[in-house]
Amino acid sequence: MFRTLRISFLLTTLSLIGVIVQGDAPGELKIQEIRKMGEEELLSSSEIEVVGQVVRFHSRDRGLFLFDGEDGIYAYPKKSWPRNIKLGSWVRIKGNPEQGIYNPIVMSNDAYVEKADDVLQDAERFDPNLFYDPSVDCHWVSSSGVIIDYDAFPRRDHIMLQIEMFGYQASIQIPYSAENLEAASELMFKFVTFKGVACVQVNDRKQMIGRLFYLSSIDELKVEQALDYIEPTVVSLEEFVNGSSSDEHYISLDGTITYIENKNVYLQEGIHSLKVRTKNRLDMKVGDRVRVSGYAWSQPISRGLRATEISKLDEAKFVEPIELDHSQLRDPENNYTLVTLDVEVMDIGRSFKGNEKGSATQTSFLCRAGEEVFECKIPTHYIVNEKFSPGMRLEVTGIVNLEQAIDVPWRFSIERMWLQLRYLGDIQVLSNAPWINSERLNYIIFVMLGIILITLFFVRALRKTVSRQTELIKNQIKRKSIMSERHRIARELHDNLDQGLAGIALQLDSSIKLFDKNPEVGLAGMKKIQEMLIYCSQESRNTILELRGGWLEEMDLASAIEQFSELLMEQYSIKIKILCEGSVERLDRYIERQIFSIAKEAMTNACKHSNAEHVIVEIAFTKDLCKLLISDDGIGLKHVHTDYKDHFGLLGMKERANQINANFSIESNNTDGVKVELIVSIKSKQQD
Questions:
Q1: What is the Cα–Cα distance from 358 to 352, expressed in whole angstroms?
Q2: What percent of the chain has pLDDT over 90?
Q3: pLDDT in the model for residue 640
Q4: 131 near 211, Cβ under 8 Å?
Q5: What is the largest CA-CA distance in the chain?
Q6: Does 300 sit behind a cis peptide bond, omega within 30 degrees of 0 on the bond before it?
Q7: Please, are residues 601 and 608 in contact by the beta-carbon 8 Å criterion?
Q8: Which residues neighbour 240 within 8 Å (Cβ) at sequence distance 6 or greater?
Q9: What does DSSP say about strands 414-421 and 372-377: parallel, antiparallel, or unpaired?
Q10: Which phi and psi angles does 560 have, rounded to 5°?
């Protein structure tokens, strides 16, 4: 009984384990079912199983292409594949579907070889109508076409052949080797059949841009027919370039080599040029005259030729470049023409030659000829050691290259023009760059702006300093002016009023004493005191007038004398004539005031005491002197004393003349009246 129970428990346990294992096991899907998954379903899907035959290994990474007889997919291992896996093996892969370069792909977690050796199944015939169908991806197909070109990419470990099939151009990728590269050149212009994996070429947005076939070996390309078995039709280069695009038969033409770049050869005959694609790089030179046989090569701007054979007719000779005006550079007829141009260098830089990582760079000049701006490229194997700089004028010789604007489908348009130089000898310096260029001009402008800003800063600071200093100087001048005016007033009061009052006090004391002895003599002294008081009063009025501004503040000396004479003529009914000689100049203020005071005193005396009918005032200005002469036709002075002690007015005029270092004199007789003369040096200064 216990034995029966143990067997029953064991069976139950095994059944439970089977259920658990079966629940966790991945579901097996067909490749077609995986390819139908959407983006969200791919991201959220769990582990799956897929079975297929290995039809191709990827040439660069560890991936492989599986085909189950209906559809194909690309698989990539997280670690590695089983060691016994090979081409034709049937494998079971457990993994997760993901988005990748081939959409979708399977990221393998584990793989099992179910059958190691098997014959590759029959490939599906590639339908030309599905050439641009993106759903035909990773399919195992067979097809055919004509090999028209090839390029080697050693760094990426593959060779890329261009094949023309069904009116389309596609690419065939095979592993790189020296043997495969040599065999590829022999396949040029041959009709071949092949079996391979048809894949879709996409851009960064996963949009289809072309068709690519993966082959494991170049031996899988089977030659069915060569296209160069017939005799070529001989035409001229001009006839070929200008001929109908429908002329696709085998032709032969002659031309002179203008440039050789890898497998591209440029020919020129007269004013017509042609780009020829050869199987291999030619062992020929620029200037060699050659005969080329091949097939027309359709190009967007001008026809090219794919050569099956090229032979030399004559040794190298100098090729004369064509001189073009800058307005003709974009003419399609000048595409691939060897030309010479005078250009101005705008900038110097480097551009990449090719699309591969680590590809060589070449020096390029950004040039301008008239209104045309274009690039001049120097071959990669030339190192530019000479010193070139923007602004230089050069004569350049090179091959014109035109590129069509592909975004203007309704009309033909040239998008870009550039010049391919052949070697450094194609550059001749016509003139060096001017010293002043845009870079230096920007530097100068920057420095000048800096100087201007610094100058404005210092000007502002200096203006504040000058404003403060000006205010200080203004205050100092104001204080000095006030002090100077105070000193002048004090000197005036001292020289005139104070001395006059002192003289009056002495005369009054003397007269009082004389009254006791002789009243008549004392009375005469009192009359002198009266005259002295009148003189002091006049001096006081003159001083007050000067303090209020005076005539000399508003007019020159001659005008002030003339205006004062008008007052005297109204008061005394006497004719006063003013004569002025020379240019009236403003003198030192103190000197003018003393001359004016002397003139007023002399004119007043003539009007009051001379009984004259006419008074003549003459003022003369010379370079160094000012002369004043006042004369009248009166009774004159009976006694003229040199010390003038009995005439306070005359004494005052003499003292004023002494204060300004002037020569003063009085002449008088009973018949000619009185002449008062004053001669003042213009350079004279007032006495302290």
A1: 9
A2: 25
A3: 55
A4: yes
A5: 193
A6: no
A7: no
A8: 247, 251, 253, 274, 296, 303, 305
A9: parallel
A10: -65, -40
CA distances, 252 to each of 276, 294, 309 (Å): 12, 7, 9
Which amino acid is located at 542 in the chain?
N
Banded pLDDT at 646 (limits 50, 70, 90): low
Contact predicate 666/640, CB 8 Å: yes
The region, left, alpha or beta by phi > 0 then psi within -120 to 50, assigned to residue 287 is left
User: Of 157 and 498, which is predicted with more confidence?
Assistant: 157
Buried b / exposed e over 134-148, threshold 16 CB at 10 Å, is eebbbbbbebbbbbb
Query: Is the separation of the CB atoms in 82 and 60 below 8 Å?
Result: no
pLDDT classification of 385: cutoffs 50, 70, 90: low
What are residue 399's DSSP bridge partners?
338, 420
Residue-level pLDDT at 245: 47
Nearest to 682 by CA among 582, 608, 607: 582
Q: Which of 334, 241, 224 is nearest to 292 (CA)?
A: 241
**Pair 265, 298: CB distance under 8 Å:** no
Residues 386-425: b if buried by 16+ CB within 10 A, e if exposed: eebeebbbbebbbbbbbeeeeeeeeeeebeebbbbbbeee
Res 213: pLDDT: 94
- Quote the CA–CA distance of 225 and 162 in Å, as a whole number: 17
| 305 CB-near residues (< 8 Å, 6+ apart) | 240, 251, 253, 274, 275, 276, 277, 292, 294, 295, 296, 297
What does pTM read for this prediction? 0.52
H or E element in which residue 431 lies? strand 427-431
Q: Are 615 and 574 in contact (CB under 8 A)?
A: yes
Instruction: Give 398's pLDDT tier (boundaries 50, 70, 90).
Output: very high
Collapsed DSSP state (helix, strand, coil) of residue 277 = strand
Confidence check: pLDDT of 665 > 60 = yes
- The secondary structure of residue 59, as a DSSP letter, is S
Q: Is 343 exposed, middle or buried (0-12, 13-18, 19+ CB in 10 A)?
A: buried
- CB neighbours (10 Å) of residue 80? 10
Distances (CA, A) of 624 to 383, 535, 585, 591: 85, 32, 11, 14
58 token code pair: 């990827």
Kind of pairing between the strands at 208-214 and 168-175: parallel
Cβ burial, residue 233 (10 Å; 0-12/13-18/19+): middle
Alpha carbons 680 and 662: distance in angstroms, whole number: 5
Task: Record the tokens describing residue 206, joined without a space.
Answer: 């996963």
Q: What is the mean pLDDT of the chain?
A: 81
